[in-house]
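I am writing to request your help with a piece of structural work I have in hand. Thank you for your consideration; the sequence and its tokens are set out here:
=====
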Amino acid sequence: MENSDILRKTSKNEIINAIDQNSIDFWKTFSNFLDKDESLKKNPKFEISVKKEVSKIFTGMNHPIGNAFTRANFTEQQVYEKVSIYLNLAKQKNIPFIWWVGALSKPHNLGEILAKIGLIKDESPGMYLNLRDIDETKYKAALNRSKIKIEQILNPKEEKFWLDLCSTIFEMEEVKDEIDRMWRVCLKFCDAYLATYEGNPVGISMVFYGGGVAGIYNVGVHPDYRNRGIGTAITLAPTIQAKKKGYEISILMSSEIGFKVYSQIGFQECCKFNQYIYIPQPNEEK
């Protein structure tokens, strides 16, 4: 991203919109790279459709994180009809998916409509950090406390460590082959970080630059190594790098377990980011 595209305004509304735009840009970039990946395109349920009214990115994997609707732009008059059409398309494929709803989604009651028709709502705090206020001494203190080493992954060996740890942390071993293929695509356009303790992988994070901000994703620490400051360090590593690149705002969508860690770093909650999840049920009418 050019420096001229970096968000300089720090009003609450600008930041809230940037959180959503970062997610939208992430999925758009992902779809562009995904469309070139022949191994993923072999899945008969694979489908990409980026339209003005909505973007549909289906890897076809049997986990909602790999199938998404995003950037909805419906009118109030057509929203029920459009949602029904797209939901039926997903049902025909018999795959789980997430419908991402943020500040830029239209109409503004889209989430209520998705909940009414049976999708499961999952709410995450949207948080931001003004990088001018970042305290790098916290990073050094966290490194010293946890006795870890953090590096940006640059080779296949480090990538494998990152992927294996990601599946463990987020409990996705049952779909590991599919999720690995998905994250390998993401690692082509995101910067990923790996924390190691005595040579063993213990923490991960990832940053995507889009919407004028640095979006932090996939922050996680191995269950056996939590409460040692590793979460703080692995979150700060990409934010410090973003500051060096000239970015002024870092954003993320927090999990329940990560909220306290992010708050202690200096991230502030500014909104709620909603995901509406669909899981196919046995004998469900298609």
In short: Residues 142 and 242 are 19 Å apart (CA to CA). Residues 128-271 form a domain with the Aminopeptidase fold (CATH 3.40.630.30).
